[in-house]
Amino acid sequence: MPSPPGSIVIGTRGSKLALAQTELTRAALLAAHPELSISVQHITTKGDVLRDTPLAFIDDKALFAGEIEQALLRGEIDLAVHSTKDLASELPDGLVIAAYLPRANPFDALLSLRGQTLRDLPPGARVGTSSLRRAAQLRAARPDLEIADLRGNVDTRLRKLFELHQFDAIVLAVAGLERLGELARAAQILDEETMLPAAGQGAIALEVRADDAGVRQQLKAIDDQPTRIAVTAERAFQQAVGAGCHAAVAAYAWVADGVLILRGMIAAVDGRTVKGAAQGHVEKADELAHHLAGALLEQGGSMLLQELAGE
User: Fold this and answer.
1) What span, in angstroms and rounded, lies between the C-alpha atoms of 183 and 208?
2) In the 8-state DSSP scheme, what is residue 87?
3) Is the pTM of this model over 0.85?
4) φ, ψ for residue 162, nearest 5 deg
5) How many CA atoms lie within 13 Å of 210's alpha carbon, on the beta-carbon side?
6) What angle do CA 81, 171, 117 make, to 5 degrees?
7) How confident is the model over 71-127, as pLDDT tens digits?
8) Cα–Cα–Cα angle for 172, 201, 294, nearest 5°?
């Protein structure tokens, strides 16, 4: 059953990053509604359990969100806090994203044992990532590198690099490193020309039941409109392409002088990419995303996705 008026139960994964993002949400809610009583419930997801399986081999669009969303639908929690990039492009019936917190840096960072940048890594250097999107763009930039699977929470991945020396370098989201106070360990922030980010990367999505008018109203006060506009375009592109959140697809949007600009990419794991950009009115994010997706699919993206599905 939904919580009584004046109280909210937040559902989240139990990782350090998820808890940091939940605390940001809690603080924002209390700043807007000091009278609220807020509690937190930790929920283990399938992605937390299958820690040793490469993400590319797990056919589950809600890998890090499914169990939390089911708890939300059952009324066990009132609000789910997600890294937006972990959400499927199409939400389960009955759920909506009621708010986005202001977006952090959406780009990726390279961390290396010896402080080397991507350009300076030696040939054959072993670079860890669990993302097909990152792997494809790493191979496009440096086909001589060895790209190896890397799973685990941020602290686990950092330990595998800096303590266990299992890799020469790894790639992680800047936003996650910032929220955990670890960004100083990055050797390089990769620009959008080198590493276009995942749809929604850096944004925290607050998901609720569509019929929970009370919580939706409370969240209006903390919904960041520039983030909503950009992320809506990115997620619409991902959905129009027909790819899950773990495919080799990237999207990044921003608003400049009242114009929405969207960049998109479809890639093969070997580094072949199809990229493009479109721009238009901020109120036509969905139309813009579908136009760009259609163009990239026609330019060879459809073939790349078929190859990826076959693999």
Assistant:
1) 31
2) S
3) yes
4) -85, -25
5) 6
6) 140
7) 999 999 999 999 999 898 889 999 999 999 999 999 999 999 999 999 999 999 999
8) 120
Q: How far apart are the first and last CA of the chain?
A: 43
Where do the domains of the chain lie, and which CATH numbers do they carry?
7-101+202-223 (3.40.190.10), 108-190 (3.40.190.10), 237-310 (3.30.160.40)
Confidence class for position 59, pLDDT limits 50, 70, 90: very low
SS3 at position 54:
coil
Provide the edge-to-edge strand list for the sheet that holds 95-100: 37-42, 7-12, 79-83, 204-209, 95-100
How many C-beta atoms surround the C-beta of residue 112 within 10 A?
23
Residues forming beta bridges with residue 100, ordered by sequence position: 205
Phi and psi at residue 255, to the nearest 5° = -110, 130
Distance CA 187, CA 291 (A): 36
Q: How many CB atoms lie within 10 A of CB 115?
A: 12
Residues counted in the chain: 311
pLDDT in tens, 190-222: 999 999 999 999 999 999 999 999 999 999 999
Residue that is written with structure tokens 């925290």 in the block? 204
Catalytic residues: 86
> Rounded to whole angstroms, how far apart are CA atoms 113 and 166?
10
Which H or E element spans position 33? none
- Output the DSSP codes for 218-235: HHGGG--HHHHHHHHHHH
DSSP 35: T
221 secondary structure, DSSP code: G
